[in-house]
Design brief:
alpha/beta
Length: about 675
């Protein structure tokens, strides 16, 4: 997951490949609650691992359920006839699929409970559900603003279930879902729920009914207005249950294929298909109407570009409220204005999605008309680079990533990309595996400098801040020297050819602060003084340097690369977007190295280290191939008197100055 302040997505040229989707959030949290309310253990396969499911799991543990993770299976032992642990304080983040059903279930079961969440959850209405529960005899108090969480639930004196329970359907389908999931706990006789007004987001209620059936509750419904829970209902665990992949998450990759995939390339989506129980699978029909070429099977979709530009549509989106956000961004690529209707529920989601979507689409150059329950999007006449505010809303971040496919080759900045953790923590990593960019469009930041200047520490931290990949070219040479020595090769001209052949196929990779050679971690082995000297020896062999050039180029992948070394900006990536030449006096570098070695128990003197560094500087700067020197367009950074944080801040400042985005307010 990208835990960065922002993520810059360079211009994308297309897409192709296979995506395996995570489990559905809507199904995952319904299954977790039903498992918790059932007798016995339920083994749940393919459960979504996200912020929303984690807060639900924490809540179930607090209520007395046993939760055990076994490999890719989560086993929940339910409460059955046992009452939930009380009192309990439950923090539910911004998970509506946890807050609403737990409110209903705990209010009907009775006990002392406090339910709260993040600030945005305390702005999401729950008054209609609470009114319906209070009418039954439940005791619920507002801990903050009336009509909104946080809530305090108290034991009730008895429930009145002999009359139909009325609940509004035009604010959120989660209110009805909450009642349908909770009422079987107290249905000694038939219990009827009547929906007041039009029921929105009906496909999510269908998911609820489907899941109830899997746990032994056969709800009878009359249209979408009247639902009957049979008397004597009792939750029965199915024992094993598989969570279908998330159809809402599939929408981004359907769109990616429709916009960026062409023959013979396509985007194949595994985990959800034509027979999905989720209403958002009908997004495929909307994508087809815009021109996408879609093939499907029981557990897969395959998408490529059909009509281009995409066709503008006018669509009632009540059946795909979440996935319709993806259509709003697809509308940027259409041949005229696209209108999305019946989406008032957007206003009470993770943010006011209607206002948020309108504001961010305008940043890109689109003309947008925002109605009370509709959005009309006219494609940009000229695209603009934009820093997209995501409002702590996962679907804003994922939808707007598609804007990087714009025809004018402009990057897109996604602010707070980690918000996707709510439903799809590795969304961007998954997207970058199938998205394509022209190599020269993938940004590179080079940090060159002499030995012990701190370039590795600086480059690694800059990469972390930007969410870019990291290349420690010095480590490549160290690994080469290590591998050659282990193979019995002397590090000299006589063995240059053999060492070069070995270097061509080094299976080296960087994982955080660790370095791997194949499956073997060699971080410690290549950080010794001897390994450093061996790296200098092999780097002086022209054939070895040539062999490692292609290997270094292979690290230039989406979304970008920070590379450190001694010739990154002059030889390996001469067209890099930003080149930094990091230096410090030999005396200061010797002091730093001395502290490092002393901390490792290695005895030496500052004078000896300084002489060694000066000798290395001379050797590196006077070698025949790629001598150490700043690139002509490099920015010089003397960190003799700077902390690492100060140096990192300066490089980030330089990077920001070269980007086309306006600073966020």
């Amino acid at each position: 997951m990208y835990d960065t302040a922002f993520l810059d997505i360079p211009p994308l040229a297309g897409a192709g490949g296979t995506v395996v989707l995570p489990g559905s959030k809507s199904i995952s949290n319904r299954v977790l609650l039903l498992a918790a309310l059932s007798e016995g253990a339920t083994r749940i396969h393919d459960l979504l691992d996200s912020d929303d499911t984690r807060v639900m799991l924490d809540a179930l543990r607090a209520l007395g359920c046993s939760v055990v993770h076994r490999a890719d299976v989560v086993e929940v032992t339910g409460l059955g006839a046992k009452p939930p642990a009380s009192p309990a304080r439950l923090f539910l983040g911004n998970a509506g699929t946890a807050m609403r059903p737990l409110t209903a279930a705990l209010a009907l079961l009775g006990g002392e409970f406090e339910l709260s969440g993040v600030a945005r959850m305390h702005e999401r209405p729950i008054g209609d559900l609470v009114d319906a529960l209070r009418a039954l005899g439940c005791r619920i108090d507002w801990e903050g603003a009336q009509g909104y969480p946080p809530l305090r639930i108290h034991p009730h004196a008895g429930l009145a279930l002999d009359r139909p329970i009325r609940v509004r359907g035009d604010v959120s389908s989660q209110f009805l879902t909450a009642l349908l999931l909770a009422l079987p706990l107290v249905a000694r006789r038939d219990v009827v729920v009547e929906v007041v007004g039009e029921l929105i987001s009906r496909p999510y209620v269908e998911i609820t009914l489907n899941m109830l059936g899997r746990f032994g509750i056969d709800v009878r419904r009359e249209g979408w207005q009247r639902f009957t829970i049979p008397g004597g209902s009792r939750y029965t665990s199915p024992g094993e249950i598989h969570v279908e992949a998330d159809a809402s998450s599939a929408s981004y990759f359907v769109a990616l294929g429709a916009i960026g995939a062409g023959t013979p390339a396509s985007v194949r989506i595994v985990g959800v298909g034509a027979d999905s129980i989720q209403g958002d699978i009908r997004f495929v029909d909307a994508a087809r109407s815009m021109g996408a070429a879609v093939a499907s099977g029981a557990n897969w979709l395959e998408v490529s570009r059909g009509a281009w530009p995409l066709k503008a549509i006018d669509l009632d989106c009540n059946h795909i409220p979440d996935a319709a956000m993806t259509l709003a961004v697809m509308a940027l690529y259409a041949d005229g204005p696209t209108t999305l209707r019946n989406i008032a529920s957007w206003r009470v989601k993770e943010t006011d999605r209607l206002a948020a979507m309108a504001a961010e689409l305008r940043k890109l150059g689109a003309q947008v008309d925002e109605g009370a329950d509709s959005l009309r999007v006219t494609p940009p006449k000229a695209w603009r680079p934009a820093a997209i505010h995501t409002y702590d809303d996962h679907r804003m971040a994922m939808s707007f990533s598609l804007a990087a496919l714009n025809s004018q080759g402009l990057p897109v900045r996604i602010l707070d990309p980690k918000c996707v953790a709510k439903t799809f923590p590795d969304y961007f990593e998954t997207m970058f595996r199938v998205a394509r960019a022209e190599t020269e469009r993938v940004p590179v930041i080079c940090v060159d400098g002499p030995t012990a200047s701190g370039k590795g520490t600086l480059a690694a931290e800059v990469a972390k801040r930007l969410g870019f990949h990291y290349l420690d070219s010095g480590a490549l040479y160290r690994v080469t020297g290590y591998a050659a020595s282990r193979a019995g090769l002397a590090l000299d001209l006589a063995h240059e050819r053999e060492i070069a052949q070995l270097a061509q196929t080094l299976p080296v990779r960087f994982d955080a602060s660790a370095v791997f050679l194949g499956n073997e971690e060699v971080t410690h082995e290549i950080r010794t003084e001897e390994a450093g000297m061996n790296a200098s020896r092999v780097s002086a062999l022209p054939a070895v340097r040539t062999a490692l050039v292609a290997l270094q180029h292979s690290f230039r992948t989406l979304p970008g690369l920070v590379a450190d070394g001694r010739d990154m900006g002059t030889v390996i990536f001469p067209g890099a977007a930003l080149k930094v030449y990091l230096t410090a006096s030999a005396a200061r570098r010797a002091e730093r190295r001395h502290k490092q070695l002393i901390s490792k128990g290695i005895s030496t003197t500052i004078e000896t280290l300084r002489a060694d560094l000066e000798a290395r500087d001379l050797r590196d700067s006077s070698r025949a191939v790629a001598p150490l020197k700043p690139a002509q367009d490099a920015l010089l950074l003397d960190n003799s008197g700077q902390t690492v944080e100060e140096s990192v801040a300066r490089v980030i400042e330089w990077w920001e100055a070269r980007q086309p985005f306006e600073k966020a307010a």
